[in-house]
Design a protein that fits this description.
The protein has one domain: dinb family like domain (Four Helix Bundle (Hemerythrin (Met), subunit A), Up-down Bundle). 54% of the residues lie in helices and 3% in strands. It has 6 helices and 2 strands. The protein has helices at residues 17-37, 42-45, 56-83, 96-105, 127-147, 170-192, and strands at 157-159, 167-169. Mean pLDDT is 90; it is low at 1-11.
Length: 200
């Protein structure tokens, strides 16, 4: 995992509203993840309704993969933003495209895109390992959110590791990652609620 970027100037001050909201979203995601895996044995955790569908395990592994891809990019963006003096306490204004991308990512899926090969999850890890990796990733993302305090969350731009044409403000990127997590937890719930899901 990449190193955590030092906090921006003013990080001891209260978090910018956008960042505080992102932390609340990540907390809610954690709580939902705990619910969706609660009480599952290994067979249930790795069950899927069809070979073309992901298991609950794969949904969480995918989120960890995505987070790992974004962490070094976030670190680089924050470091460059500080070096360039892109500092602000807000309010921040994001483009229509950025807001649309975040909205379109929310569950239930409105637009289905093929998952890049590098982000497709294996299904060969135990429930305990997957859970620990997911929680570790969530904490790493929180650290980046806190480290972004004081930066201009709209002018500091993040380029997607999967679509170079997609550029988002740092604040929009955090919101996108939270929405993406909700999207795949929704997917995990569809698996757990499936009529053929193995139950005791």
């Amino acid at each position: 995992m990449s190193s955590i970027v030092p906090p921006a100037e003013g990080v001891d001050e209260p978090l910018a509203t956008d960042l505080a909201d992102c932390l609340r979203q990540f907390d809610a995601v954690d709580a939902d993840a705990e619910k969706v895996i609660w009480g599952l044995d290994e067979d249930q955790f790795h069950w899927s309704p069809a070979s073309s569908h992901w298991s609950i395990a794969q949904c969480l592994v995918h989120l960890a993969i995505m987070g790992h891809r974004y962490l070094p990019i976030l670190d680089d963006v924050m470091e460059r933003a500080r070096a360039q003096g892109l500092l602000s306490r807000g309010p921040f204004h994001y483009s229509f495209v950025e807001r649309w991308v975040v909205h379109a990512t929310e569950p239930p899926p409105r637009i289905r895109l093929r998952t890049p090969l590098s982000a497709r999850p294996p299904d060969d890890r135990t429930r305990e390992i997957v859970h620990a990796e997911f929680l570790g990733m969530q904490q790493a993302l929180r650290n980046r959110v806190r480290g972004a305090n004081g930066l201009d969350l709209a002018r500091a731009r993040v380029i997607s590791p999967f679509a170079k044409s997609l550029k988002m403000g740092l604040g929009s990127c955090f919101s996108f990652l939270a929405a993406h997590e909700r999207r795949h937890l929704w997917q995990a719930w569809q698996v757990r609620r499936h009529e053929d899901f193995p139950r005791p």
